[in-house]
C-alpha cells in the first residue's frame, strides 16, 4: 500500500484554485461573478470605516496558536518602500510569532463566512464572522501572506479564470522576497512565522497612518495570549516618519482566587512611544455567571457561562488621544461609557464592530450580571484589606463607583443596579475612635459637616475622647472619607448628613463645652452660629446647656440656648465686662442678667469671626450686648422695695460716672428714674421732683401746708448722707451728696412749678399783703417761663379773694368775674346801662401799686376791655333767654341798647356777637335766632309757595318792629329776598305740598338748583312728586323726557315716553337742561337711549313689538345712523341680542322671535341646504313683515343678521335636521352639507353637540348592512386601503352612489366622524368581523389589524376564527385559545392557533387578544386535577412539563391556587412511572440523615419527586421552594425528636470546664455576634443571654446519646426510627451531656462533632431568636475547628465586622478573672 504524500504549499494552492474555484469552467463563471458582488457588498456593510481591518488582524492574532515557550507578540511596520512592486505609496507589514498557517487555515481564508473558529468560543476564540481577513481589502487591493512556506496573495479584482475576487489565492514568486521583508523587519532578528503584507491604496495611506498612531494602549488588556504589540515606521529617510511609534506589553502579577466562580489579579500595562512612557496597574476581577435560558443566542448556543471581567485602573489610565473605551469584547469597541471601570465580556457586536448590540438579549443578559460582578469586586477590595489599615488607604477603591451617568440608557440601568446593590452592602467605614475599622451599609452611616470635624480635631488635640461618635443612632462616616472630594461617591451611595438631633445628642454626651479651651469652645459656637438657620433652629440643641455665664457665687455655669432665648436667664456681654461682673454680684443678679466669663469674652473679642458669633448670640441665643448705661437702665426695674439695693444703685451711678463709663446726660437720665429712700426710710419709685424744704421761707404763711404731696415730690432720707462701700468701691459722704444735688436737681419752693391743685387760702378774701404776694409769685413764674398748672390757676381765678366795687357797693368776687375799669367806658357802662351791673376792681383799696400787676391780673382772669364788658352784658341777657324770660320789652331793650351804643359811637360788635346766636326772636316758625329770621316783604311771595320761611311775627311785635330794620340787620335778620335760594331750600315744604306746581314755582326751583351749591335736598324732595306738567299730565321728574328735535324720533317708536309741556313753561325751559337733569328728567340722548332700551326689552319679552314698531324703528335707526349721534354699546347689544324679530323655520309657518344675530334674511343661496335644515329666516311673508323688510337689508346686517350665505353658514350646524328616511337625502344635499362644514372649518367654528347628534344618525350610504350607516361607522376608501383590503371587507362609503367627488371631501368627512386615515379603521373593521365567514377575507382583515397594532376594546371584538375549511369554522373567545402547545398535552382542551395561522399573526393574537403563548398554570392545574381523578401514572416528560410551567409562572396568587387545586403530589415509584400521593404524606428531604433513616424502612417513597439530573428550566431549589409553598412539609420540621434516657450502667464523667471549649473565647465570639445592630440587643440583654454558659455542668460519656424520631402520617399511623447524637443540653438542670470525642475518626468525625456542638450552643443561647441561630452556629463551628484560638477568632470577628464594647469587656473580665 503506497503512502499518501502531503502536498507542498504550492501544490495545495493550485489544488484550491482548480477544485474550489473551477478556474477555466464557464459553467461556474456566472455564479462566482455574482458571488463576488455579494462579498464586495458584505465587506462594505460589515465595516463602515477603513481602519477596522486593524482590529480584525489583532483578533486573528489572538486566536492563533503559539508555542508554549513563546511570548505571543504582534508587530506592525509601515514603510514607504514598494517591496511588492505594485506601485503602492506605502506598505504595511504585520509580524506575528504564532506557529504558522496550516492547510486548514489556508482553505478557510480562501472561503466566505467559513471561519475555523466558529463554534469554538469555549476554546477561547474571539473571532466568529468568517470574513475578518477580507476587511483588509478596504485598504489594499492585493494582500500578501507569508507563513509556513505559503507565499500567496489575493486580489479584489475578479480572477480572469473564474470571475471571482477577494478569495482566489495566487502564488508569489517574487516581489516581495524574504530578503526584502528582512530588510524592513531588521536584519538582526529572525523573521516570525507569519507575515502579512498590505500594499496600501493611495487614498488610504493617511487613514492607516492615523489609525496606527492612535492605537489605544489598552488594546491588550483583555487578550489572553498577545502580551506584546508594537507599531513603528521604517523609511530610508527617518525624517519622513509620521507614524507615532508605540510598544505595548502586559504582565499579570499576583493572582488570587476568591471562589470557584470568581478570581482577582493585578495586571500591569506599560506603553512606550516617541513622546511618552506610561504604565498603569489594573485590578482585574473575573467572574462567571450561568447563561439564562431567556438570554440564549443562536450564535452562542454552546456557551453555558458568561465570563465577565472588570478592570479597575489604579491610577491614570494609559491612553493615547482624548477618550478611552469602556466596553471590550476582548478588543476595544468605540463606546465611551463615562464609567470609571472597563467592562469585558463575550458581547455580540454590531456589524461595524464599533459598539455592542444593546438591544440583543444575549448582551442584555451580560449587562444584567455586571452589577453583581462589580459589587462582588468592590466588596472584596474593601473588606479583604487589613482591618487595622488606615481608612485613607481604602478610599481609592471608591473612585470606581459609576457616579456619572452614561450616554447609553442601558448602561445607566447597570449603573442604577450597581447603586441598588451597593446600598445593601457593608462597605462604608465608620469613625470608631479605635484602630479597628468597622464597615456599615450606606444608609447606616452619616456625614458630619466639615466645620464640626474641625471642632472635633481640635478637641481631640486637647485630649477629649471621641469614642462615642457612632453611639447616637447612626454611625459616623470616617473622617478620611468625609471630605468634599468624595461628595460624588457619597451622594451616589446615598450617604447623607447626620440629622440635627445627632449633633444634639453628641454635644450633650461629650465634653466639648467645659472640657476644652475657650478657643475650641468659641469654634463650637461659631459652628452652631453658621448653621443655625439652616439646620439647628428647630432641633433639640436649643435645650442643651451650652452657654457659659458667671453665677451668683462667681463660678462658671451653663444655660441652654432656649432658656436664654426665652429670657429665663439673660446672658450678657459688655465692653466693661469685668466691672459689670463685680457689680452684678453686688446686686445679687437681681435683674436676672448674667455675664459671660471674662475668658470667653476675651476669646470672642480676639476671634476673626467675632461678628458672626456675636450676631448669632444676639439674634438666636438672645445674648444682650450691654453698655453700663443699659445695665443700669435694666437694673432700675428690679430695685423696687429694697432699701439697701436702692442706695447701692446710687453709689453704682456715682462710681460709673467717676470711671467715665457713664456720661453726664446718662447719669441725669438714670437719676431721674432711680428709686429714692425718703426721710421716712421708705423706697419711693415714683416722683415728680426732689424737694429740699426751706423751713424759714416767707412762703410758709401763704402755702401753710405742702401742696406738692400729691405730685410725688420726695424728700431725701439720711441714708444718702452716710459714706458707703459697694463692689469694692468706697464713697465719701459729702461728694456723694453733691453728686445727688447736681444730678437729682433738688429744688426750693419758689423754684418749683405750682401744683396742679387748688390751695384753700384763695377761697376767701386775702389781705392786701397776701394778694400782692400771690401776684408776685405769678409774676416770678411767668418770668421763668414756668407754665401755671390749670387747676392751680383755676383755683385763683374762681376764688373770691379780690375786692371790687359795683354801683357804689363793695365786696369780694373771683378775678374772672371782675373788671379793671378804663376811664373811657367805665362810667358810661355804669351810668348808661339799664341792663346789667358791672363789678370793678377796687382801686381805692389796693392803691396805685395795683397798676404794677396788670399782666398778672389778666393772667388770673380780670377783664380790661370794653368788648369784654359788652360780652359780659350779652351773656347775662342770654341767660335770661335760656330760661325763656326774654319778653317783647326785652327785645326792644336790646334793639334800643344797640341803637344807644351806636349813638355814643361805641362799637356794638361784641355785644351783638354775644346775643345774635340766641333763640329770642319770635317768628312764624317759633323762636329763632336773628340770623335764622326774615323780615317779610313782597319779594318772598313765590318762595312762600314752596317754602316755610321764618318771618318775624309782626302780629306779636307790631309795626314798631319795622323801625328797627337797621338794628335787626346788624343782628343778622334778612330784610329782603336778595337771591337767598339756600334759605328757600333749607325751609322747603313737605313733598305733599309740592305737587302740581305753577310755572313760576318750577322756574324758582330750577333757579335754586342753578344758584345753590347744595341742591340735593330739593332734588330728593321733588323726586316722587308730580310737579312737572307733560303731554301726559303732571308727572314726577324721573318719568319725564325733554324732547330733542335731532333724536326725538326714537321716543316716538313707542307712545310711552311723557315729554315736558313747552307750551306751559315757555321755550325758556329748554335752556334749563342741566337743572332738569339734576331733578331726574331725561334730557340726554344716552339716557333716552337707555330708557328706550329698557322699554324695548320689556316689549320684546312679551313679544309685543309689532310689525309697525319694527319698521318705524328701522326707519329711525337709518335716520340716526346718518347723524352725529353714536349709539351706546348697551343699545347695540340690545338690538342685536334681544329677541324682537319674528322668524319662520325653513319653509314652514311655524316660528318664534329671535335676535337679529340669530336670524337669516332669506335668499336664493339657501335653496339647496333647506331640505335637511330648519333655519331661522326672518318672516317676510305677507302675514308679517312682507317685502318691506328687505328694504332694510343694510341696517339688519349692521345689527348682526346674516344676509349672505357665507354669513349664515354658522346656523347650519345648529339647525341640521336629518330626515328619518335617509333615502330622501340626495347627493346634492350631502355635498351642500359638506360645503357648509368646509366653510365652518375655514372660519374655525367648532361643530356643536346638536350637530353631532344629528350627523350620528344613519344617513351615509355604504357597502354593508342595510345600506346606510352613521358617519362614525363609515370608512372612506382610497388608494392607501387597496394594499390591504377590498371595499366589501368593511363599511366603506358607496362611491358608486356619490361619485368620485366624495373623495374631495376627505377632511370634512373626517370632521363628522368618518374614518379616512388607514391607521384608524381598525375598530370598525374588527367589530364587523363576525359578519365574515370567508377565511381569506378574515386573514386580510387580521393582517390589516396586525399592521396597525389594533387592540380590542370590548368582548364583542375579542373573537378569533377557527377555520374548518375556507367557508366553514367557528368564532371563539381568546381565552379558549393558545398559540403553541409544545408538549402536545392540550389539543383537546384549547384551540392551538399555530395550526391555522402563520407566525406574524400569532404575534398579533398575543399582543391584541392577549392569547397566551403557552398553556398557563391554571390550565395545567385543571389537567393535573384530571390526572389525580383518573389515577393516571405520569411519565417523566409529563411531570417535567407541568412543574416547569409551575415554577416559571407561579406568583404568590398562583401559589395559593396551587395549594387549593393540588391534592396529590408526585413521588418516584421505583420504575419509570411517577405516582401521585396525598401531599400530606409527601416530604421534602431537607435533612439527608433523616431521609436515609426513613427511606430504608418505608414501603414506598415518602419524598417528593424532582428530575434527575436537574434541568436548567427546572432548578431543584426552585421546585422544592414551590413544593414548600404548596404545603409539602420538610422532613426536618415534621419529625419529632425525643431524647431518650441513658440506659442503666452508663458511666457519666464530669468534665472540668477549662478542658472543654466553653470559655472566654466562645463567650466573646457570641457577644460580638449579639452586638450587631441588626439584632438590637442592649448590653444587659447580651450578658443575660450568655450567662447560661457560665455555670454549665459538663458530663461526658463514651457511648452515643440515643434519640428517637417519629413521623405522623395522614392515615394516623406513626413511623418511628432510632438514632444518636453527640451532644445534649438540658437547660433546666444546667447540664451538658457530651460524647467523648474520638479524634481517631479523622476530620469527618471532628466536623460532625463541631457541627452538633455549634447547633446546640447557638440554639440554647438564642432560644428566643431562632432566626439568628444558624448564622451564629456557623461562626461557632469555625471557631471550634481552630480550637477556639484567640488570635484566629479575633481575625474571624474582624472579617465579619464584629466587635465587642467596653461594657462587654468588663463583663468578660468579671466572668473569667483568671484569663
UniProtKB/TrEMBL annotation:
<dbReference type="InterPro" id="IPR052957">
    <property type="entry name" value="Auxin_embryo_med"/>
</dbReference>
<dbReference type="InterPro" id="IPR036890">
    <property type="entry name" value="HATPase_C_sf"/>
</dbReference>
<dbReference type="Pfam" id="PF25794">
    <property type="entry name" value="SACS"/>
</dbReference>
<protein>
    <recommendedName>
        <fullName>Sacsin/Nov domain-containing protein</fullName>
    </recommendedName>
</protein>
<dbReference type="InterPro" id="IPR058210">
    <property type="entry name" value="SACS/Nov_dom"/>
</dbReference>
<feature type="domain" description="Sacsin/Nov">
    <location>
        <begin position="47"/>
        <end position="149"/>
    </location>
</feature>
Amino acid at each position: 500500500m503506497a503512502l499518501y504524500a502531503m502536498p507542498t504549499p504550492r501544490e495545495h494552492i493550485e489544488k484550491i484554485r482548480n477544485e474550489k474555484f473551477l478556474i477555466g469552467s464557464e459553467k461556474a463563471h456566472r455564479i462566482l461573478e455574482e458571488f463576488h458582488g455579494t462579498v464586495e457588498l458584505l465587506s462594505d456593510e460589515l465595516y463602515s470605516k477603513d481602519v477596522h481591518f486593524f482590529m480584525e488582524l489583532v483578533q486573528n492574532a489572538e486566536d492563533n496558536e503559539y508555542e508554549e515557550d513563546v511570548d505571543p507578540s504582534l508587530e506592525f511596520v509601515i514603510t514607504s518602500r514598494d517591496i511588492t512592486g505594485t506601485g503602492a505609496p506605502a506598505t504595511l507589514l504585520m509580524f506575528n510569532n504564532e506557529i504558522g498557517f496550516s492547510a486548514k487555515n489556508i482553505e478557510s481564508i480562501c472561503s466566505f463566512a467559513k471561519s475555523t473558529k466558529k463554534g469554538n468560543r469555549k476554546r477561547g476564540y474571539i473571532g466568529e464572522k468568517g470574513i475578518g481577513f477580507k476587511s483588509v481589502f478596504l485598504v489594499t487591493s492585493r494582500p500578501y501572506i507569508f507563513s509556513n512556506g505559503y507565499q500567496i496573495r489575493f486580489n479584489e479584482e475578479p480572477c480572469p479564470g473564474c470571475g471571482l475576487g477577494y478569495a482566489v489565492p495566487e502564488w508569489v514568486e517574487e516581489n516581495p522576497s524574504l530578503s526584502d521583508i528582512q530588510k524592513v523587519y531588521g536584519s538582526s532578528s529572525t523573521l516570525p512565522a507569519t507575515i502579512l503584507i498590505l500594499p496600501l491604496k493611495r487614498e488610504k495611506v493617511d487613514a492607516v497612518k492615523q489609525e496606527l498612531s492612535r492605537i489605544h494602549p489598552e488594546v491588550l488588556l483583555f487578550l489572553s495570549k498577545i502580551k506584546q504589540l508594537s507599531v513603528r515606521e521604517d523609511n530610508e529617510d527617518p525624517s519622513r516618519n509620521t507614524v507615532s511609534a508605540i510598544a505595548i506589553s502586559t504582565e499579570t502579577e499576583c493572582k488570587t482566587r476568591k471562589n470557584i466562580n470568581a478570581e482577582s489579579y493585578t495586571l500591569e500595562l506599560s506603553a512606550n512611544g516617541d513622546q511618552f512612557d506610561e504604565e498603569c496597574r489594573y485590578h482585574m476581577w473575573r467572574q462567571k455567571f450561568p447563561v439564562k435560558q431567556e438570554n440564549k443566542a443562536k450564535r452562542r448556543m454552546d456557551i453555558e457561562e458568561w465570563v465577565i471581567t472588570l478592570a479597575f485602573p489604579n491610577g491614570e489610565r494609559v491612553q493615547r488621544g482624548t477618550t478611552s473605551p469602556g466596553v471590550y469584547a476582548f478588543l476595544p469597541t468605540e463606546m465611551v461609557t463615562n464609567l470609571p471601570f472597563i467592562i469585558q465580556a463575550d458581547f455580540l457586536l454590531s456589524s461595524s464592530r464599533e459598539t455592542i448590540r444593546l438591544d440583543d438579549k444575549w448582551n442584555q443578559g451580560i449587562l444584567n450580571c455586571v452589577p453583581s460582578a462589580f459589587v462582588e469586586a468592590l466588596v472584596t477590595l474593601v473588606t479583604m484589606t487589613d482591618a487595622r489599615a488606615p481608612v485613607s488607604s481604602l478610599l481609592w477603591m471608591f473612585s470606581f463607583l459609576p457616579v456619572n451617568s452614561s450616554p447609553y440608557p442601558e448602561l445607566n440601568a447597570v449603573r442604577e443596579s450597581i447603586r441598588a446593590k451597593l446600598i445593601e452592602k457593608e462597605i462604608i467605614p465608620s469613625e470608631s475612635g479605635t484602630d479597628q475599622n468597622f464597615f456599615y451599609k450606606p444608609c447606616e452611616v452619616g456625614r458630619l459637616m466639615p466645620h464640626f470635624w474641625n471642632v472635633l480635631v481640635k478637641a481631640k488635640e486637647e485630649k477629649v475622647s471621641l469614642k462615642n461618635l457612632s453611639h447616637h443612632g447612626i454611625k459616623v462616616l470616617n473622617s478620611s472619607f468625609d471630605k468634599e472630594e468624595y461628595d460624588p461617591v457619597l451622594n451616589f451611595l446615598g450617604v447623607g448628613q447626620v440629622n440635627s438631633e445627632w449633633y444634639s445628642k453628641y454635644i450633650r454626651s461629650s465634653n466639648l463645652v467645659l472640657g476644652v479651651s475657650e478657643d475650641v469652645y468659641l469654634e463650637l459656637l461659631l459652628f452652631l452660629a453658621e448653621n443655625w438657620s439652616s439646620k439647628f433652629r428647630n432641633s433639640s440643641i436649643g435645650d442643651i446647656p451650652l452657654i457659659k455665664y458667671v453665677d451668683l457665687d462667681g463660678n462658671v455655669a451653663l444655660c441652654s440656648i432656649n432658656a436664654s432665648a426665652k429670657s429665663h436667664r439673660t446672658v450678657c456681654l459688655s465692653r466693661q465686662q469685668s466691672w459689670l461682673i463685680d457689680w452684678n454680684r453686688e446686686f445679687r443678679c437681681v435683674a436676672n442678667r448674667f455675664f459671660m466669663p471674662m475668658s470667653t469674652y476675651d476669646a470672642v473679642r480676639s476671634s476673626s469671626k467675632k461678628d458672626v458669633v456675636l450676631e448669632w448670640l444676639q439674634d438666636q441665643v438672645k445674648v444682650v450686648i450691654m453698655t453700663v448705661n443699659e445695665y443700669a437702665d435694666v437694673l432700675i426695674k428690679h430695685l423696687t422695695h429694697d432699701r439697701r439695693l436702692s442706695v447701692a444703685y446710687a453709689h453704682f451711678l456715682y462710681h460709673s460716672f467717676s470711671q467715665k463709663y457713664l456720661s453726664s446726660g446718662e447719669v441725669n437720665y438714670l437719676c431721674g428714674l432711680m428709686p429714692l429712700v425718703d426721710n421716712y426710710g421708705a423706697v419711693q419709685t415714683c416722683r415728680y421732683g426732689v424737694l429740699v424744704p426751706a423751713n424759714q421761707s416767707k412762703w410758709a404763711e401763704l402755702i401753710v401746708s405742702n401742696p406738692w404731696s400729691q405730685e410725688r415730690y420726695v424728700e431725701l432720707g439720711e441714708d444718702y448722707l452716710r459714706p458707703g462701700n459697694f463692689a469694692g468701691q468706697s464713697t465719701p459722704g459729702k461728694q456723694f451728696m453733691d453728686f445727688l444735688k447736681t444730678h437729682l436737681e433738688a429744688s426750693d419752693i419758689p423754684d418749683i412749678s405750682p401744683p396742679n391743685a387748688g390751695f384753700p387760702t384763695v377761697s376767701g378774701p386775702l389781705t392786701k399783703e397776701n394778694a400782692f404776694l400771690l401776684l408776685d409769685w405769678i409774676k416770678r413764674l411767668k418770668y421763668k417761663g414756668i407754665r401755671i398748672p390749670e387747676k392751680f390757676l383755676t383755683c385763683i381765678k374762681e376764688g373770691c379773694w379780690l375786692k371790687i366795687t359795683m354801683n357804689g357797693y363793695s365786696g369780694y368776687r373771683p378775678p374772672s368775674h371782675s373788671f379793671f375799669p378804663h376811664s373811657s367806658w367805665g362810667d358810661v357802662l355804669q351810668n348808661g346801662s339799664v341792663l346789667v351791673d358791672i363789678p370793678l376792681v377796687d382801686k381805692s383799696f389796693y392803691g396805685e401799686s395795683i397798676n404794677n400787676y396788670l399782666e398778672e391780673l389778666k393772667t388770673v382772669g380780670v377783664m380790661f376791655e370794653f368788648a369784654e364788658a359788652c360780652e359780659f352784658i350779652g351773656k347775662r341777657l342770654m341767660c335770661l333767654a335760656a330760661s325763656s324770660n326774654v319778653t317783647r320789652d326785652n327785645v326792644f331793650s336790646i334793639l334800643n341798647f344797640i341803637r344807644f351804643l351806636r349813638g355814643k359811637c361805641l362799637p356794638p360788635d361784641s355785644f351783638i356777637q354775644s346775643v345774635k346766636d340766641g333763640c329770642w326772636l319770635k317768628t312764624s316758625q317759633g323762636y329763632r335766632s336773628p340770623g335764622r329770621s326774615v323780615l317779610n316783604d313782597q319779594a318772598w311771595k313765590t318762595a312762600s309757595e314752596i317754602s316755610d320761611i321764618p318771618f318775624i311775627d309782626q302780629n306779636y311785635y307790631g309795626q314798631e318792629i319795622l323801625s328797627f330794620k337797621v338794628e335787626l340787620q346788624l343782628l343778622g335778620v334778612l330784610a329782603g329776598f336778595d337771591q337767598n335760594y339756600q334759605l328757600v331750600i333749607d325751609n322747603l315744604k313737605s313733598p305733599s305740598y309740592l305737587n302740581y306746581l305753577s310755572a313760576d314755582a318750577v322756574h324758582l326751583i330750577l333757579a335754586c338748583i342753578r344758584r345753590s351749591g347744595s341742591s340735593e335736598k330739593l332734588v330728593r324732595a321733588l323726586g316722587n312728586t308730580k310737579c312737572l306738567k307733560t303731554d301726559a299730565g303732571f308727572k314726577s321728574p324721573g318719568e319725564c323726557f325733554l324732547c330733542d328735535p335731532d333724536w326725538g324720533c326714537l321716543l316716538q317708536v313707542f307712545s310711552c315716553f311723557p315729554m315736558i309741556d313747552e307750551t306751559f313753561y315757555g321755550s325758556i325751559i329748554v335752556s334749563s337742561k342741566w337743572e332738569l337733569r339734576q331733578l331726574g328728567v331725561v334730557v340726554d340722548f344716552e339716557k333716552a337711549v337707555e330708557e328706550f332700551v329698557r322699554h324695548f326689552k320689556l316689549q320684546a319679552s312679551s313679544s309685543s313689538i309689532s310689525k309697525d314698531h319694527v319698521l318705524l324703528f328701522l326707519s329711525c335707526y337709518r335716520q340716526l345712523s346718518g347723524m352725529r349721534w353714536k349709539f351706546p354699546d348697551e343699545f347695540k347689544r340690545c338690538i342685536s341680542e334681544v329677541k324682537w324679530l319674528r322668524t319662520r323655520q325653513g319653509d314652514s309657518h311655524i316660528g318664534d322671535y329671535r335676535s337679529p344675530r340669530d336670524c337669516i334674511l332669506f335668499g336664493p343661496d339657501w335653496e339647496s341646504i333647506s331640505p335637511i335644515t330648519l333655519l331661522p329666516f326672518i318672516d317676510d311673508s305677507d302675514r308679517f313683515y312682507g317685502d318691506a323688510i328687505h328694504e332694510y337689508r343694510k341696517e339688519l346686517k349692521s345689527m348682526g343678521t346674516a344676509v349672505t350665505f357665507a354669513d349664515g353658514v354658522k346656523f347650519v350646524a345648529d339647525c341640521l335636521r336629518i330626515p328619518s328616511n335617509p333615502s330622501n337625502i340626495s347627493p346634492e344635499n350631502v355635498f351642500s352639507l359638506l360645503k357648509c362644514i368646509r366653510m365652518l372649518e375655514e372660519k374655525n367654528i367648532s361643530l356643536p353637540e346638536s350637530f353631532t347628534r344629528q350627523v350620528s344618525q344613519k344617513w351615509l350610504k355604504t357597502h354593508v348592512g342595510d345600506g346606510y350607516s352613521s358617519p362614525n361607522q363609515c370608512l372612506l376608501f382610497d388608494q392607501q386601503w387597496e394594499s390591504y383590503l377590498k371595499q366589501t371587507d368593511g363599511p366603506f362609503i358607496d362611491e358608486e352612489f356619490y361619485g368620485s367627488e366624495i373623495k374631495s371631501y376627505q377632511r370634512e368627512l373626517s370632521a363628522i366622524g368618518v374614518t379616512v386615515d388607514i391607521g384608524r379603521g381598525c375598530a370598525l373593521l374588527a367589530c364587523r368581523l363576525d359578519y365574515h365567514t370567508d377565511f381569506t377575507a378574515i386573514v386580510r382583515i387580521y393582517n390589516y389589524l396586525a399592521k396597525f397594532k389594533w387592540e380590542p376594546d370590548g368582548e364583542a371584538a375579542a373573537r378569533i376564527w377557527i377555520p374548518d375549511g375556507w367557508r366553514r369554522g367557528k368564532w371563539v373567545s381568546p381565552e379558549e385559545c393558545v398559540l403553541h402547545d409544545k408538549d402536545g398535552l392540550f389539543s383537546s382542551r384549547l384551540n392551538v392557533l399555530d395550526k391555522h395561522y402563520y407566525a406574524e399573526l400569532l404575534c398579533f393574537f398575543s399582543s391584541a387578544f392577549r392569547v397566551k403563548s403557552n398553556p398557563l398554570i391554571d390550565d395545567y392545574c385543571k389537567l393535573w386535577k384530571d390526572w389525580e381523578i383518573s389515577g393516571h401514572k405520569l411519565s417523566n416528560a409529563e411531570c417535567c412539563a407541568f412543574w416547569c410551567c409551575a415554577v416559571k409562572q407561579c406568583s404568590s396568587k398562583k401559589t395559593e391556587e396551587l395549594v387549593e387545586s393540588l391534592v396529590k403530589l408526585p413521588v418516584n415509584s421505583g420504575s419509570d412511572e411517577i405516582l401521585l400521593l396525598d401531599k400530606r404524606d409527601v416530604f421534602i428531604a431537607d435533612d439527608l440523615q433523616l431521609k436515609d433513616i426513613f427511606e430504608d424502612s418505608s414501603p414506598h417513597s415518602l419524598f417528593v419527586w424532582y428530575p434527575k439530573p436537574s434541568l436548567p428550566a427546572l432548578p431543584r431549589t426552585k421546585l422544592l421552594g414551590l413544593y414548600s409553598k404548596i404545603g409539602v412539609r420538610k422532613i426536618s420540621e415534621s419529625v419529632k425528636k425525643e431524647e431518650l434516657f441513658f440506659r442503666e450502667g452508663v458511666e457519666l464523667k464530669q468534665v472540668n470546664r477549662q478542658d472543654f471549649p466553653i470559655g472566654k473565647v466562645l463567650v466573646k465570639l457570641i457577644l460580638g455576634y449579639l452586638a450587631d445592630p441588626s439584632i438590637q440587643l442592649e448590653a444587659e440583654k447580651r450578658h443575660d443571654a450568655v450567662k447560661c454558659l457560665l455555670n454549665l455542668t459538663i458530663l461526658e460519656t463514651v457511648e452515643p446519646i440515643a434519640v428517637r424520631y417519629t413521623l405522623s402520617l395522614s392515615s394516623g399511623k406513626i413511623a418511628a426510627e432510632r438514632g444518636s447524637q453527640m451532644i445534649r443540653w438540658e437547660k433546666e438542670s444546667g447540664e451538658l451531656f457530651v460524647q467523648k470525642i474520638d479524634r481517631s475518626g479523622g476530620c469527618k468525625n471532628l466536623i460532625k462533632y463541631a457541627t452538633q456542638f455549634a447547633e446546640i450552643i447557638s440554639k440554647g443561647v438564642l432560644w428566643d431568636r431562632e432566626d439568628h441561630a444558624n448564622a451564629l452556629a456557623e461562626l461557632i463551628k469555625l471557631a471550634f475547628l481552630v480550637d477556639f484560638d484567640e488570635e484566629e477568632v479575633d481575625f474571624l470577628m474582624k472579617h465579619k465586622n464584629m466587635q465587642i464594647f467596653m461594657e462587654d469587656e468588663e463583663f468578660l473580665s468579671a466572668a473569667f478573672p483568671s484569663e
